[in-house]
Design brief:
This protein is an alpha/beta fold and 362 residues long. The protein contains 12 helices and 15 strands.
């Protein structure tokens, strides 16, 4: 199989996939030997743990280098690069020169990320959340942006996964929460603020105290704070996570299920916790006018929300056709570029005034 210059081969003995590049004519015997030695080690580990009567799930990554003067470093790079590039952890990878460059770039990004919070390079942007009937702004979602001194604005998708992996998401997330609450307290009292929480933040046993402290420091009423989580949060230590969510809700904070429909979408989650809101992922809203299955999903989720007394928000509304469709299906709220892109805090008064003028004309 070919893909971007890479070929996948299966070990003759174990069937393990082996990724190679540029060495197909030279390495058949070598990759067989390395792969099967890795298999041998795994079998020894599994055998020893099996004797204790325990069931184990083990994954192994092997990295191979052709430059034996720097074997250890290059093997490590091959293995590690495969991990953060999303390669199947059971795949053997051969070292390539480009791997080192990518790893170095990632390492530099991590160093910059560690300095960013101390150097005040992060900013919170705000995107309006709009009630659809009648159409009016009822709140904003806080969205993190990184204004890098050389790279310019860095989108969250480029650094949030790294922040989660390194644990930096904890202090960054707390900073975003505090900034969002401090800004929201300046708004009219009927506006709420939505803040995203990472699954990694739920591993911190002081999360509830962190939220309470941010509210206390800002003076924002708990009922005006809405915390958004994705379904992946509930996949880890579900009992502890649910206890944290219940504690937050009992304090008065609202909880929303974000990106609903893109993960496991277990209806059991909606039974195990009384969510205040379901946010329908933008991938369905984008195709709501062109694909019957997307329309059916939007209709099903809004119907479910109505039956359970849970508000629904259509994410990623970009045009009037999408707006009319989601209104027709019963969505309570909308969010997207049709209403406004994310803006800096200083632009909010003008944005609210503009929206109010348009609403009066309509």
């Amino acid at each position: 199989m070919g893909d971007s210059g890479h070929n996948l081969h299966l070990c003759d003995h174990c069937g393990l996939p082996i990724a190679a590049s540029g060495h197909q004519g030279q390495v058949a015997g070598v990759w067989q030997r390395f792969c099967c030695y890795g298999c041998y080690l795994c079998q020894r580990i599994i055998g020893e743990r099996g004797e204790s009567g325990l069931t184990s799930w083990l994954l192994a990554q092997l990295g191979l280098s052709w430059f034996f003067s720097m074997d250890i470093m290059m093997i490590s790079v091959a293995r590690y690069t495969g991990g953060f590039e999303g390669v199947d952890p059971r795949t053997v990878r051969f070292f390539e020169p480009g791997m080192d460059a990518r790893m170095q770039a990632r390492r530099l990004l991590e160093i910059d990320l560690r300095k960013a919070l101390a150097d005040s390079e992060f900013e919170v942007f705000f995107q309006p959340i709009v009630q659809l009937d009648p159409q009016e702004i009822i709140g904003f979602e806080a969205l993190l942006r990184w204004r890098h001194p050389q790279r310019g604005i860095v989108e969250p998708a480029a650094f949030i996964p790294l922040a989660e992996e390194t644990g930096l998401i904890a202090p960054i997330g707390e900073w975003v929460l505090r900034q969002a609450c401090a800004e929201a307290v300046k708004w009219p009292e009927h506006f709420h603020i939505a803040v995203n929480l990472s699954p990694v933040q739920f591993k911190n046993r002081t999360l509830v105290q962190t939220v309470i402290a941010a509210l206390a420091a800002s003076g924002l009423a708990p009922q005006r704070l809405e915390l958004e989580i994705t379904e992946s949060v509930l996949l880890q230590d579900e009992e502890s996570t649910l206890a944290t969510l219940h504690a937050l809700r009992e304090f008065g904070v609202r909880i929303a299920m974000d990106d609903f429909g893109t993960g496991y979408s277990s209806l059991g989650y909606l039974r195990s916790f009384p969510f205040d809101k379901i946010k329908i992922d933008q991938s369905f809203i984008k195709e709501v006018g062109s694909r019957s299955d997307s329309l059916a999903i939007v209709r099903a989720v809004t119907g479910l929300g109505t039956s359970l007394g849970i508000a629904t928000t259509a994410e990623g509304v970009e045009n009037l056709e999408q707006l009319e469709r989601v209104k027709l299906e019963g969505c309570n709220e909308g969010q997207g570029f049709l209403f406004s892109p994310p803006v800096e805090a200083k632009e909010l008064p003008a944005l609210i005034e503009k929206h109010n003028r348009q609403r009066k004309v309509a």
